[in-house]
Design goal:
Layout: E1 3-16, E2 20-27, E3 31-37, H1 46-49, E4 56-62, E5 68-77, H2 80-84, H3 86-102, H4 110-125, H5 130-143, E6 163-167, E7 172-175, H6 176-179, E8 185-187, H7 190-199, H8 217-232, H9 237-246
Parallel strand pairs: 3-5
Antiparallel strand pairs: 1-2, 1-4, 2-3, 4-5, 6-7, 6-8
Bound molecules: zinc ion (ZN).
Length: about 250
Amino acid sequence: MSMYRTRALVLKSRNLGEADRVLLLLTEDYGKLEAAVKGARRQRSRFVGNTLPFNLINAMFFTGKNLDQLSQAELIHSFAVLREDLVKMAYASYWAELIGEFVPERENVQEIFKFLLAALITLEKCDAPDLLNLAFQIRILNYLGYQPELETCVSCGDGSASLVHFSAEEGGVVCRRCGADLRDLIPVSRNDLRFLTALSTTDIRKLNQIEQTGVQLGTIRAMLRRFIEARLDKPLKTQVFLDSVLA
Ligand SMILES: [Zn+2]
């Protein structure tokens, strides 16, 4: 049996059998992985408290036949605020599901680990996480190479001023002519596209400084949501929870 250590963020926890739990973790050095916590539901130990969702831990794993086993979990930072505030919990759960769905298992994704950690720290202190959430979505897509095309028409490559629609199915903006043959288009403005590009490059602690004149945030939300659903071919479960909390 071999062992390995790394920092890890707990994304999700589910029951396994009578007494165990399985955690979904994003680790700094080994990517996204699942690990079992033996007897987690029987013991009321600090170890179990340290593995609550969104916590940052120093983790030690033993490799197992099917599932690796978490054998140590030292708490580095408890994101308790994110578990106690319903709105923040809804955002953090949504991000965890997004990463769970999009990030392949056991691939080196150190950049995503660092970005998720920075985003959770920002969310902890943030009063209005809407922009942060939009930035989170576009950046995760960018990191994984799924970014929507925002510069030229995805159908014909036209980069002129006639980009007036966004097609989630096609994966980006479409010109007026190509849009005539497509369904489910979202009307977009140049300001919307500029804003979305700025969301993907601006320091996440300074998103409020991005120029918002002429920008329809509802359009940005719809573009990202439908783009993500089209890539996954399904809606995210936590989206429903987020919608109900924000309603
Ligand atoms: Zn076109």
